[in-house]
Amino acid sequence: MLRIECPFCGLRNHDEFTYLEDGSGEMPALDNIDGEAWYEAVFLRDNPRGMHIEDWHHTQGCRMVLRVSRNTLTHQILSVMPAHPDYKEMFSDSAKSANSAPKSAKAKSAKDGRG
Amino acid sequence: MDGKARVKRYSALRIIKEGLSGHKGWQPAWRDATPKPAYDVIVIGGGGHGLATAYYLASIHGIKNVALLEKGWIGGGNSGRNTTIVRSNYSIEGNTAFYEHSLKLWEGLSQELNYNVMFSQRGHLSLFFTPGQRDALARRYNIMRLNGIDGEFLNRDQVQKMVPHLNYSEDSRFPIMGGFLQPRAGTARHDAVNWGYARAASALGVDIIQNCEVTGFIHEGGKIQGVETNRGEIRAEKIGMAVAGSTSLLAKMAGLGKLPIESHKLQAFVSEPIKPFLDTVLVYSAYNGHFYISQSDKGGMVFGGDLDGYNSYAQQGNLPIYTDVAGCAMNVMPALGRVKILRQWAGIMDMSMDGSPFIAKTDIDGLYLNAGWCYGGFKAIPGSGWCFAHTIANDAPHEINSPLTLDRFRQGRQIDESGHGPFPKAH
Amino acid sequence: MGAYRLNKGGRINRDKEVFFRFNGRRLKGFEGDTIASALLANNVRQVGRSFKYHRLRGVMSAGPEEGGALFNVNDGAMRIANVKGTMAELRDDMQVYAQNAFPSLAFDIGAVNGLFAPFLTAGFYYKTFMGPARTTAFWMFCEKFIRKAAGLGKASRLPDPDSYDIAYKFCDVLVVGAGPTGLLAAAELAEQGQKVVLVEQDFEVGGSLLSGGRTEEFTLRDTLLKRFEKAGGQVMLRATAFGLYDGLVTGVLERCSDHQSAPEPFSPREISHIIHPQHVVLATGACERGFAFGNNDRPGVMLAGALRSYACRYGVMAGRSAVIATCHDGTYDDAIMLASLGMEITLIDARNKPSRYAKKAQAAGINVLAGKVPVNVAGVKSVAALEIADIDEAGEIKENTTIIGCDVVGVSGGYSPVIHLPSHRGIKPRWEASINAFVAGKTPENIHIIGSADGIFDHQACLDNALQITQKIKGQKTGVKLRRRVPGGMRALFEVQIKGRKLKSFIDPQHDVTSEDVRQAHREGFVSVEHMKRYTTLGMATDQGRVGNVLGLAVMAQAQGLAVGTTGVTTFRPPYTPVSIGALAARERGRHWRPTRRTPMHHMHLAAGAVMTDAGAWKRAWYYPRGDEGIDEAYVREAATTRQNVAMVDVSTLGKIAVQGPDATEFLNRLYVNPFAKLAIGKARYGIMLRDDGMVLDDGTTWRLAEDNYFMTTTTAQAGPVMLFLEELLQRRWTDLRVHVTSVTDQWAGMAVAGPYAREVLAAEFPQLNWSDEAFPFMGVVEVTHRLGQHDITCRIARISFSGERAFEIYVPSDSGAQIWSALADRVNEAGGCLYGMEALGALRIEKGHVTAAELDGRVTLEDAGFGRMASKTKPFIGSVLRQRSSLQDERRPQLVGIFPKDRTKKFSAGAILCTPDAVSGFGEGWVTAVTHSPALGHWIGLGFVAGGAQAWQGKTIIVADPVRDNFVEAEIVSPHMFDAKGDRQHG
């Protein structure tokens, strides 16, 4: 059982989650009409043995998409972050340190993140 | 170097003779070769596919100056850790002819190799539970029939007559409606296939080199010229790769770049040996469930289900699939409740973007790729070796494997039996 | 001569007699006995037959390594195969049967194999049975007999009547093994305040303390157990840690009721515990192993430690006079204890230098002989004598032998630490020469191996090791590393070979693998450990090589001229001991195998007499038979009523997603192939979405309820995947969009009222709405609060048609679904209408050429499904680039069509292949996806895909080929819109 530390829900068994796919690359922009770019993004994989950036969906939890760094050989998980950059911001080191700061500062940092 | 003359045939008579003389006369099944500096062809990967390729290169195409390189011991990958099912029930062009070709080779393989691969044509029964499943399977089996492949429709009563101890109760979550049977399908002894090909290839002069790991590729003038290994440099102008489970890693090393492949973990299970319990291969898919089971000659119930569902190179089992597969077993065979699992293991599958394999030339001159077998590679071994050998020998695919190209997705020519699209874990 | 029960001693309860049957014979044991101890107590020496040669087998060990005492237990549906008699507790009325023997244990036909043993060596099957012809016929003929002879126990074919459970546990430390080391570690940790779970496979805590036979050991056991329990620790008995997985999650099988004569009703037979600890302490002990010599598989040849276990724990002497063969000091204490209990013992030690315990043993009356090894066992049914020989310092064994009469032989070749669980985690075993055994390699920080499991075989050192580890877990520095060693040292002994003698020396007695088999494997090149294992089947029996692996590796190493332990080792795989399939499936069987989803109106369908069918996890009404109608009569009536009058169907299973936020419009516009930017509030639109690869993902209608609020519907099958895809898009790809999606499938009950009189029925129920075409046009949406009884119910109504009739879909909060359904059903029935199910729904949609999952199977493009013109040319959408790949734009691709049989009386089926008359072979020109008997047209019709589409087949005949059902029908290809192609009925 992989144990995934969901930033929103805590440490959970992986069978609560749905593995999505490689999360290391970006999909082409929707208006990108380069067929080759889409072909590569949709069909080709780096498929490393070792560290792998991948996305999991907490299907039976908060339903957030999480970006996980995991070793595909040892299954060791190094980090779990929300895939959405705004939420990721909330869990970044600066935001974390803001957790101990007064409430107003914390709210502000989260709000900034959304901007 | 010519091992052919020295290899004695296996037979009942020979066994009696050896038995009476303390079995001292047996020779190694294959020569444990040390690498020469150069060969006509190098086959990387000593699994069933690589061994079969080497054998057919020598036996059909007369290319006997062949090195087969295996980083560990032959048959140590997926061809030695599968559920041994052999069938040809495929419906999409590109698959159907290929798997039937393979099945036909299976039928004469023991005699061809002079090695009993124990291919037992016990039949392969796919159950269905809903009209939708029936219609999809009917389409598949009709295609088979129209291509000269055996396939039969069984109603619920016929299924019950064939396998009486399934769950026919209306209390089951998905009551059995019927099944489709491929009588010529069955199971074989996986190790025997590997060893049989190794022995036959070695007898024809192929060098089988174990504990020889490829660490690099030699390119000269845009062409492949050989490999670097932990046992030194070995040269050849043609190199075939059949390294399921490590395909992406070697492809990267060879300069092929990204492939339409993800590595996923598939688990398999065997029970303690029991007296004859199931006389066919039984398979089904139902709502979020997938299950296949057969009984080995030793008496173990051999079974499996879905992938773990995330990229993995770890050959270790995991609990969620363990419990899921057990549930799938109990769903159709509630007598299995008291049968005990003896061993659980896992293999690393090359999961392709459409669930179908690749036997093809690559963008690099002289480099050929055999990969992407998902979890159906075992039954493909003879056909795959046959087609791959043809492709290497002629520098062009045979008609049978011509659809199994690496870049078929670029043109939208995917061979997608399940319809799941570019999600390897779903195939 | 033979085995007998002592008058006193042991941990059995002599006040509680237990009666059981072995092969029908009634025997007596005591509470606290295992099957094996009770059989020995009754001097039952032969307990089964071996796998290949069907040689007689006796009890060999006293633990999970047992390869001889395997039984079928119980009758009928309760029968269990391959029960290890050394682990199974005896209970009243237990029915125990020997395995692999037919017709009886004493006379077994299969034993004829033994005569052919010279030929049935390693690799035998690979070399013969090929047959003359290039077919599998000869092999399959032979295979039948081979299969019958193979296998061990007989499994019941009846459904398992027992129930099982899965339970989840969380703790700080999981201690595996409750021997002295594990007990002490567990007690210390619990006293430190850790939450500790201690699992023990045995039915008593104590491990080796139970078999020592000394009061102080029992006292230590009791003291430690009390300390542990007092500190709040939890002990689980009959609980085997069978697998160690990622994240330290441990599978533990608890056997709850097999040992009870009358289990509590409804109590599970076994429970699979999935335990989540922070640390795992493995105090799994070590397993004694023998070594190979002639006929070392005969009943009466046992592990030396097992002799002691039976004597001290169960009060059973396995024989009266024993030869005990060893190569280390550890066995002396066993022998001394056995002698004190009355066993006449000759102790032969392979070491030439007398042991420092030799004098003590002699003082106990033991005949101690140094520099001797066992050569061959005399006696077929059981041990009658042992032939022994001298061994010199160099390891040379002399040819002159002497014979010692005895009725039992004890063997000890050393101890193998039980390192299965670390092996599950990929921790490679390492050969430790000081103990001639494998130990686990470096473990991660949260896995701790202690005591004899780590090769520490000294009692006090084990206890020290336990204390060390508790400090380490606490975070304190630990002291010096304890030395792995066998006290007094040992002589490595794996096989006794003697010049000029052909001995049948077993390495794996369960699978009948001999040392000769291993040497033959070597001659044939099967030298890597995995090849050897697979070629000889060594270590593949039910004990998974606990006893034989090391011997096999040693014999192979010797054949290769290599040092033992340098050749690698095969990997131990889970489970540690076999786990029943039922226990892992637990409650997921029968009706509960998968969750069942029911719509809010489910009970009303049942009340209306509906026959239900499965749609994914959902139960849906299939048809509502009246009188003695079958499915065909019922659906044709229901569909006809829909076309002619009015009918209602439950559509609650459709996926429903609330799409909300300022950018919701933009989101939908990017998602769907057709434009959504200008959908008016109060209107619905049919939309199609693709996957990134350009294949159709799903279709459905989406309703605009407000500026920033949409109500999306999906197909039943794709509800989950579409929801996931939307979330993925918003969180990964289009993170700029301010949109929130919420699955509301379970929040809204849905029903469709369809038919020429649908409007009248609804107008009667909802008089507050204007039902005119102008006010409520096709694709119009209204939200209305409807008062029904005491309740105000929010209803969302859209004029949408899947049936092709004038139709409305009404969604209401699930809690009110049944209430509204009931009210509308009454009105439908009053109007002469009916309810309709899935089959009629299918008939109606096939007539109209509307697609479902049967057509949209993940391999279909927009053009294939006839939606090519819906795709926007002015905006990008998901899949808009890759759908243009060359092969997907081929006009010869199969496209959606309607199919009429030429002879309108003929029937055909979905799954048939469409072929030209001159080529009914290959892949044909297309296929049939759905078939119905059309009430509107009066004959069988079908939907399907055919190359080039309907245009290409005008005026041509096609064959509907269905060879698996032996049906070939001539047909014509028509437009998929087979009824009311213009759609007048739904608009009118």
What does this structure look like?
The complex is a heterotrimer of chains A (115), B (427) and C (988). Chain A has 115 residues and is of the alpha+beta class. Chain A has four helices and six strands. Chain A has helices spanning 35-43, 85-90, 93-99, 103-114, and strands at residues 3-6, 10-13, 18-22, 51-57, 65-71, 77-82. The radius of gyration of chain A is 16 Å and the shape is globular. The relative contact order of chain A is 0.17. By secondary structure, chain B is α/β, with parallel strands linked by helices. Chain B has two domains: 29-115 and 189-260 and 354-426, FAD/NAD(P)-binding domain (3-Layer(bba) Sandwich); 124-184 and 263-352, D-Amino Acid Oxidase, subunit A, domain 2 (D-Amino Acid Oxidase, Chain A, domain 2), CATH 3.30.9. Helices cover 28% and strands 25% of the residues of chain B. Chain B contains eleven helices and 19 strands. In chain B, strands 5-6-4-14-15-16-13-17 form an eight-stranded mixed sheet, with helices on both faces. A six-stranded mixed sheet of chain B has the order 8-2-1-12-19-18. In chain B, a hairpin with a 2-residue loop joins β9 (214-220) and β10 (223-229). In chain B, α2 (48-59) crosses α10 (377-394). Chain C is of the alpha+beta class. Chain C has six domains: 1-158, Roll (Ubiquitin-like (UB roll)); 164-286 and 416-474, FAD/NAD(P)-binding domain; 288-414 and 489-560, FAD/NAD(P)-binding domain (3-Layer(bba) Sandwich), CATH 3.50.50; 602-653 and 747-843, Probable tRNA modification gtpase trme, domain 1 (Gyrase A, domain 2), CATH 3.30.1360.120; 655-743, Alpha-Beta Plaits (2-Layer Sandwich); 890-987, Elongation Factor Tu (Ef-tu), domain 3. Chain C is built from 22 helices and 50 strands. Classes of the chains: A alpha+beta (115), B alpha/beta (427), C alpha+beta (988). At the B-C interface, α1, α4, α5, α7 and α9 of B face β7, α3, α11, α12 and β31 of C.
